[in-house]
Write a structure and sequence with these properties.
nine-stranded mixed sheet, three-stranded antiparallel sheet, 15 helices, about 20% strand, elongated, Asn/Gln_amidotransferase, Asn/Gln-tRNA_amidoTrfase_suB/E, Asn/Gln-tRNA_Trfase_suB/E_cat
Length: about 475
Amino acid sequence: MKSYETVIGLEVHVELATKTKIFCGCTTAFGGSPNTHCCPVCTGMPGTLPVLNKQVVEFAIAAGLATNCTITQNCKFDRKNYFYPDLPKAYQVSQLYLPICRDGGIEIEVGGVKKTIGIHEIHMEEDAGKLVHDEWDDCTLVDYNRCGVPLIEIVSDPDMRSADEVIAYLEKLKLILQYLGVSDCKMQEGSLRADINLSIREVGAPEFGTRTEMKNMNSFKAIARAIEGERKRQIEVLEYGKKVNQETRRWDDNKDTSFAMRSKEDAQDYRYFPEPDLVPIEISDEWLDTVKKRQPELRDEKMVRYETQYDIPEYDASLITSSKKLADIFEATVAICNKPKEVSNWLMVETMRLLKEHEMEPENIAFTPENLAKLIGLIDAGSINRTVAKEVFEVVFAENVDPESYVKEKGLLIVNDEGELRKTIDEIIASNPQSVEDYHNGKTKAMGFLVGQTMKAMKGKADPGMINTIVLELLQKQ
């Protein structure tokens, strides 16, 4: 069997985090009753004219700068004609001839090998509506709420050769966009979705093979499975002596296979022409400089700063910065308590454990940096031990309670009364003569048993160090 190489390029559609749509004042809020977030402008009714949302342009510029693109300071919109029912005006306003960003790239790392994935262009456009297929009534309904929601489409070069490289690219891109604040990138809501352009060729062949496109993939797992499935399908087609058709395919993750939808259109099929209802966009040097100055610190820079400023290991910095939400909580908590390693440990261990248990994303964390700092303060003051702290943190994580008030209300403060501790330990030693005998016979684990029984009797509210000291003292007097 011949050896084949997979060639992959992506078109990533990103819904921008503006409050209103790209050409009208309708809300971009997710959900809502069907056809309640639309107006004559975003549904393209006769006699209406679009007005460009300035924030869309600035978000596109920010994304371009962060992905090392050249900004097209004189760009324009074009009209892309197609006749699908999810766009009632039968065309989409997009950018073909002069996209706002061009010739960029981002670096990924897979298996310890670094590689730059080129970005051919980023262009602005409006989103289409949503088709709802009602199998019960055998009909298709259309919800136009999403019509006119602003998008940027990030078109990569065909530089990826495996599903691992694709996922690394998407994860890096997602983090950049989230750190910029230009999109929430919630794939389950369609804020980030990818079209996969895939072809195969014999290893060493100079020309690309015929590509297929799988549209609107909104799950990393589904994307990885779709790439592997389509790769195998195309190899089988060629091995049987047939030709791969240039077409758009739909990936069915439940059936682990793809199905042909329609022949793949080229630019000429859409009959692009300059959008007559919108003037060209002129991005002045001053405007561009203003956006540049607002660019936030991105993950790569933040990781380096965390290692030097907070003296935390590279692994810690990598994990914390893997989510903007975690990074924001880390910095805000450290600013309050000035204990970076302690904050890092709580985020990396207990927070990650609870996120996994509750099947939550870091973006949905509800507790505040103030309450995490208070919990750390209670430990430092010796008011609670770490066992109790973990129990309290579970409540803080779930309900964002004030840990100081909660500890007082539940009577969880550490008992530092030496007299009370000695009385309890005396009773436990008296009740366990075998353990005392075992200890004097050299079985040191017997002392651990007595310490454990004391902690149990004190309901975890005693200082373990004090317990160990007193138990040892009393055992030596036996």
